What does this fold into?
Amino acid sequence: MHAFNRRSFLKAAGAASATTILGARVGPVAGTLAAAQAEPARPIAANDHIQIALIGAGGQGQYDTSVAVQIPGVKLVAAADCYNGRLEHSKELWGADIFTTRDYNEILARKDIDAVIIGTPDHWHKQAAVDAMKAGKDVYCEKPMIHVYADGPEMIETARSTGRILQIGSQRVSSMIYAKAKELLASGAIGQLNMVTAHWDRNDAIGAWDYTVPPDASPETCDWPRFLGTAPQIPFNGEHFFQWRKWKAYGSGVAGDLFVHLFSGTHFITGSHGPTRGMATGGLRFWKDGRDVADVVLGLFDYREGFNLSVRVNFVDGGEESEGLVFTGSEGTMEIAGNSVSVNRVPRAKEPGLMIGSFADAMQKEIREAYEQKYPRTHPEGAPAAGYEKYVAPAGYSDSYDHFKNFFNSVRTRQQPIEDAVFGYRAAGAALLSNLSMERGAVVNWDPDAMKLT
It folds into this structure.
C-alpha cells in the first residue's frame, strides 16, 4: 500500500520518519489492528467484488480512489467531475474504458455500481450523498459531512430509511495509532483527562488552498452551472472553481477542512458525543487574496465528560506543517504526532507534601514528625515514579487504507462503519461551531446527543 496522504499526493513530497527519544520505551503498535494490516489477502469471492464510482475527481477524490482500489476486490468503473481535464486524467489513471461524465446522475442510474466516493466541494456533499443512497448506492463521503447544519439530519435519515452504508472520510478514526491512544486513555495511563490541545498548522500556498488553476479553465471546459448548484449564481470564476475552499459559498473554511479531523479523533479516543458549547476567534491575517474565510482560527470547547478541548489552525506558521493532539490528565500526558502515540506518565503523589522552610526550626520538626506519622510509607522529598512509552505504526502504514478497508467491509457485511452518519455529523457539527461563534462574536451552545444548536 502507499504510505502517502492527500497533501503529499498533491505535492509529491515525501514524509519524514518518526524519531525516538533516547532511553524511552519504544515499540510497535500491538494488537489486532496491526495484525490485520499484515494479514495475507484472502481470496475474494465473485459476489464480494465491489464496483465503485468517483463523484468529484479533484485532488482529494483522486487520492481517495487511489487508496480505495488497493483494497482487494474493489474496482473503479466510472467517474464524474465538472472539469473535462479531470475526467481525462481519470482515464489516464484507471483505464480508458472507465465511464466518465459531468453529470453524476448518469453514474447513479447504472446498475453495475455498488458504491460511490464523494469528493465534491462541501456544498454538494448532502445532495450527492442523498441522491446516491436513494439510488441504492453505498457512500463514502469526504469530510466535513455537512456544509450547513440542515444537511446532517437529512443525511442521517436517508441512510436509515434506505439501509445504505454511509461512511465519512475522517480517516484518523480507523488509525491503529488512534485505537492505541483510545486503549491507553481507557486504561488510566494518564489518569483523569482534563484537557485536549490540538493543532494543524501549514506554511505554504498549497496548504492554504491556493491550488493551481489550469490555463484551459473556461465555461467550455468547466460545467460552471453544475458546480455552483445551490451557491450564489455568479459569472464563471476559475479561482472559485479550483480553489473553492477559500469561499464560504462552497466550503467550510479551516473548521470543515481541518478542525473536523481533530474533533473526530478526540471523539473517537474519548468516546464523547461532542462539546456542549464552543467559542472561537481568528481572522484573515496573511492570505488576503480575495478569500472570505479566516487563515488563523483558535477555538475553545467544553465537554461534559470533564475536559476542555482547544484547537488551532494557523496558515501563517513559519515552520513545517504539523498536526497533533496532546491529552493532559491528572497523572501525565499522551501525545499523538504523525504515526506515533507516546505517553509521559507522572503519577500524582497521594500525600499533599510540605512547604515549611520559612517556619522556625522547632515548628518544622513538629510538622514533619506529624506528617511522617500520617504518611508513613512516603517521604516529602520523594518523587513519584514516572515513565515514558512510545508506540509507532509499522513503516508504510496508511490510516486511509484502513478507513477504506473498514468501509468496504461494511459494504460486504452490512454492518455499520466506524464513522457512520451520526458520528460524522457530531464531528462536523462540533467543528463548525467555530464558524458560528466567529460570525456571532459569541459563545455557541450545542446539544451533542440531540445534535442541535441550543
About this structure: The chain has two domains: 34-173+402-419, 175-349+382-396+425-453. The CA atoms of residues 355 and 364 lie 9 Å apart.
